[in-house]
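Protein of interest.
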Amino acid sequence: MKILLAVALIAVLTFVGCAGGGSSNGGGNGGNPALQSLQIKPAASSVAAGLTMQVTATGIYSNGSSQDLTNSVTWTSSKPSVASIANNGVLSAKAQGSVTITASSGSITGNTTVSVVTGLVVSIAVSPGTATIAGGTQQQFLATAKLTDGTILNVTPMVNWTITPAGIANISNAAPTQGLVTALTPTNTTTVKVTATCAGSCQAQSGAPSATASLTVTNATPTQVAISPTSATIGWGTQLQFTAIGTFSDNSTQNITNVCQWTSSSTANVFITSSSGLAIGKGVGGPATIKATFRSVSSNGAAVSVDLSNLIAISVSPGNPVIATGTTNSFTATGTFNDGSTRDLAQTGAITWSSSNTSFASITSLGVATGIAQGQSTITASVASPALSGSATLNVENASLQSISIAPASASIAPGTQINYTAIGTFASCPSCPFQQTLTAQSSTHWNSSPTSVATINNTGTAKALAAGSTTITAASTLAPGGITSNPATLTVTNAVPVKLTLTPGNTFIPPGAALQFSAIVTFSDNTTAYVTQQASWSSADSAIATVTNYGLATAQGQGKTTITAKFGAVSGSASLLVTSSTLQSIAISPANPKVAEGIAAQFNATGTFADGSTQDLTTAVNWGSQTQKIATIGSKTGVLQALSPGQTTITATFGAVTGTTAVTVTNASLTSITVSPASASIALGNSQQFMATGGFSDGSSQILINVNWSSSDTAVAIITDFGLATTSGKGTATISAKLNAVSGQAVLTVH
């Protein structure tokens, strides 16, 4: 559970969970995000000798944000005699050949391959030369160029596309759909001329070479829409691509998959992209009825059911928690599937939870256990088909609550924003004592803000700023006789007003069916910033291309380009989102061919390269798998690998028909040390500090550890999350510890 949550925090929940969580001077927002990868654009491109080309580097950070690092990375060329590159990323093509261009920032690198050709464009050809389509459908045209040295290049994205006469069909000049014609619905059958003219980066020997093709748009009307497959059963979490074929009044047929409107009768079971027909199994059950509609003509329904036939094992986490009577603990059931992937089973709707001894602990259908009396109970998660289960041991202690610490101790935020507080209880006088337990959202915990005119706080510890002023935040628990109240925390609400809203990531693209979490960051008049993802209102300029939820989660529906916009108060911000599928050419996995010690978790990333040379982080869009599950499993949508036993397995990242692979060797090296960095830190009350744990192994290797158990020696000074983020709760010194497999490392945190 901890591993999956860690990746979710990095990839998505940083934007949601911390929305509005404070200002630039603290307030619980966390430390600086870490650079995780560099995306280099363009990729696999060609350029003529004697010309220059701009290469860019975009940094992708641990919180999902991106930043243009073109002018700050170190650029190198594998063959300067073929092409050199300047500090600003401008490449100078010199001689025919292939060269690898690399950008480096510390230990993080990214690269692209550039082919230098010696010729310029002599002539252009358009294919197909002739085509006939019905009104409302599409036709893709391609442009190829012949160079002076005889080389043939695909220049579809480089030419300028036009159609004459106008008013019969439209043709795209925007990525990723350059050369794609969408026919209108003419009264009469009409023939138009499609022209591709060398322009922009299409470098001609002389003039502006062009070529034409003939396109006939008929006035035929659709009479039937047939989709395939007509029925299917898919495993939970897997994908199925539907195809739609239209039959027209002139007896012609045409693939109309990408111009239909696709629907599912039960999106809780089967989600389908509205403009591209990609179905995804979301919940066990069905069948859901899938239909495609084109110009008011609908297909027959295709019945799609979702089952767990691809599930091979269940594990329950946390494995051995200790809680006090009258408190609760949430359990997670994680499934291992036949492709070696792991996924949280909560959304299947098929999990049954049970407690072996309901006198000690009860459990709800959602996996929330309540401690009733001192004792031990086995918590089990099971599914009926296939008959599988997993379990964990819950220890309930009749312990007495000694104290409550909340963090952050002080924070400053602007009106309309939010901040999340955490409450940790320390218990004593029991066999397992002392122990600490999170009390933030327990029913026995009551949060208070005084005065409420400045800020309110709900029962999960989220405070919302209302008006300028200062308020005191406390958490009280009824677990102890007479109740116990925490240390007071001061929340200051400034009178700052929003002046700018920025969305991250900025301009990016994803495949159909994939989801992308946007974050909204507001800048205030006092130069502080805050995440307002949850408070902003979201919209998509074209819902046929992508939809977006109230929390900034965009889902790609069909190919094309749309604008995602967020509005907070009087300010708004936007980002461009491209959705493309057919142009995905390859997937690269990093790290490549690594060694991972057994019992250790490791994060993998997937980068897709598209036909136009651009690249995109697809880590949470691909389906991850492991060839040999007994050696290692991997999170289906997270890319987190869990090394289980020595040996070698192949890790795959798949989207549609494209798969990337890398070999992973699991060693029998043992963890010998843990180094926590920074080793010591001193921060002001109200600020936070991000810690990192690095493991040293018996074979001399080292690795960042993402599945350690973090703890603070004094929660009255600092509280630390499962992800190594320490938030201050009072002045003093605390020892921050990271522990895994009986090995631990420490750091000292001083709060002043």
Remarks:
- The mean pLDDT is 87.
- The first strand starts at residue 35 and ends at 41.
